[in-house]
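From the shared-data thread, chain only:
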Amino acid sequence: MKILDLVNIAFNYTIRNKKTMKSIIGISMVFMIFIIILWIFLSVFLQYPQIADKTPIDNVINIDYADEQTIISGYRDTGGTLGSDSFLYGNKEKNNLLNKYDNHIEEKIVSQYIQIRQNQEIVNINNQEYTNNDYIELYKFIDLDKSDGKIMLSSQKNELGSDGQKLLIGEGFEGNGKGQIIVSEKWLEKFSLKEEDVLNKKIAITLDVDKIHHNLFKYEKNYVLDNDNIVDNEHINENEYTQKYMYEGDNICVLKDFTVKGIIKKGYYDKKFNKEEESEIILSTSSLYDDNGNSYLPIIKDHKICDENYKADVGIATYKTTDYNALANEANEKGMFFPFIVQGSFYSKLNYTSVNTLISNTPITSLEIQMDSYGQAKKLYNKVYMDSKSDENLANKKLVDSVRITNFFDKLLIVLGLSGAVIFIVTMINYYNNLSYIYKNRKKYIGIEKAMGMKKYDIYKIIFLENLIINFLACVIAVIFSVIICYFITLKFNSIFSEFFTLNWYYYLLSCIIVSVLLFLISNLFVMITSIKYSKSSIINLIKG
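Structure, as tokens:
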């Protein structure tokens, strides 16, 4: 038979047979779903690297941990030594965590923070006094040995320097940094000072802390001064009014004759570095601890105080003498920082919010870690987030958003992959059953044609052509409906995720091609099996059906 005759036979039977048309519609609906799933999968999978293509400054994770002397209960503590619902790694847990990712850590900055409350901050330069009325000052102490002598990560320095802006004015710390200080441009502006007024000059910072009275019952915990230098004895009658816990005395000099070795430009405190709450005064831990690890830090013990109506948790800060000015002078002479933390705190950046700060009885060590890739930064972020159940200051907003979105798409890819595989298998089974059903109803017709002299190759050609028509019609119907559905999906999807990537119609076209090719190849395999089966059947068996 001529090819045109075979096409005519195949076309007429396919179009005019209602059962065949119903099967075509069923096949097309399943393929429509498969096209949509494959389109979303390809759009996410092939554009996924764009989300992870981050600059190095986005691959920075912050971790806070307690030192060897600080005892915490596991990872979390819900009261007492730490503020409620706060989080810290213990030193052992921190080491285990870093050992796991050690090969992927490029740099780290190791530091401690001390937050001090004051009535007024007084700066003395060349016997000239300048005042600042900020209520709180945050001091940052960098361990230069563990930080390879750096005060900030290279990625941050390079990012700031990319626009020609010089980040640090001055030489920065020399040697171990003892007796040296770096301040920010923002901090100088509070005193109406300029760079040339302070750079490489001696500076003293004195605090007016007389009669600071903080509401002890408003916050989780505060530090208050002991009335003697004995740590474990009774402080005062805990039923006495809390006013007795105030310091009453002269101004306290926390540092004296420190050399200003650098001035950090305001660009460093940008939100893209997660530095909005960063300290504006930076010192070396060598100015806080001497070579033997000794410091002027007080010993702090937990205590409860109350007035007529309320009770409060406080940390009683006991210094080796109650002559605080004498103690401050001793520290000043040694080139050491005197941490007078009445109503202050050991600061934890990860646990800081506008209403609550984690309070520890010893300094908290903060790690700012530069990972070598987004993938490793994401793994470390997910691990710390899983432990802490919080992303407060854990990383900059760009990394947090990227990790959240890629975590979502990781799950989406798995769901799409599994559902696509299931739908594909179900589709192929359904397709085979439909073909079997169609040609089962055609057995008698094939038998008659075979009795009239039709060759088995012609039978195969007719079945092949019918299958081609079925595939074509099913694909056309699937494409028409899927285009309409995909249009509305695109509008919604792109409005939510456009910052990261969009659903691309190029991948829709690719999905249609892939589905069509798969449909053609697999259906023809089924057709070959069916045609061989019927071509070998006897005429009598075919006519009987």
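DSSP finds 13 helices and 17 strands in the chain.
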